[in-house]
């Protein structure tokens, strides 16, 4: 259990060499390890993550939103991580994220790009291309013949995988990630303490400045 011997203030947000604060490397590694442990305890051979919070949890990458499935991540039972992203983001991640060994260019199989294509055949092509890229990585890392979890219930994407013979499980993957993320690490707790302190300071400023007749925009 995480305990503190004092409860006043929070640790600073900037890294220093003279005091232990939030250890971002440890934060990334412990999140990844929790997700991998849950995967190893399941019957899945891999998980495809499309939801931004889940991608961030496993990879430590800062998600920029995008148009949906511009980025996605495969985690295998052997601990391998493959991440796909758009050209500019993928290039940046290869340079600035040395903890990721395999970053590839994505095919936007979901989201605004397929919707903007205007034709069902074009959308099916993009979804199929996304599925084929993932299937190639699954085969490369030795999990091509095992069940795959996916954290979104996209019928088109699931159909693309299943038409190629991949067994897809959605609920099991979603439950697995929820179970991993619900217990916070030491560094996550410290982040939550900082957020709470910032919110408390904001509410204190509001109570000190709010007066009858004062507009909300003036507070």
N-to-C order of helices and strands: HEHEEHEHHEHEHH
CATH superfamily of the largest domain: Creatinase/prolidase N-terminal domain
User: Segments where pLDDT lies below 50 for 5+ residues?
Assistant: none
Largest sheet: 6 strands, mixed
**How would you describe the shape?**
globular
Structural class: alpha/beta
Question: Count of helices?
Answer: 8
End-to-end separation in angstroms reads 40 Å
Strand content: 5-15%
CATH class of the largest domain: Alpha Beta
Radius of gyration: 21 Å
The oligomeric state is single chain
Write out key terms for the chains shown.
219 residues, alpha/beta, Creatine Amidinohydrolase, Chain A, domain 1, 2 domains, six-stranded mixed beta sheet, 48% helix
3D architecture notes:
The chain is built from eight helices and six strands, in the order αβαββαβααβαβαα. The two termini are 40 Å apart. The mean pLDDT is 87. The protein is globular, with a radius of gyration of 21 Å. It has a six-stranded mixed β-sheet with strand order 4-3-2-1-5-6. The chain is of the alpha/beta class. It has helices at 24-40, 52-59, 87-96, 112-117, 120-140, 155-163, 171-181, 186-209, and strands at residues 46-49, 72-76, 81-85, 103-105, 148-150, 168-169. It has two domains: 24-183, Creatinase/prolidase N-terminal domain (Creatine Amidinohydrolase, Chain A, domain 1, 3-Layer(aba) Sandwich), CATH 3.40.350; 184-219.
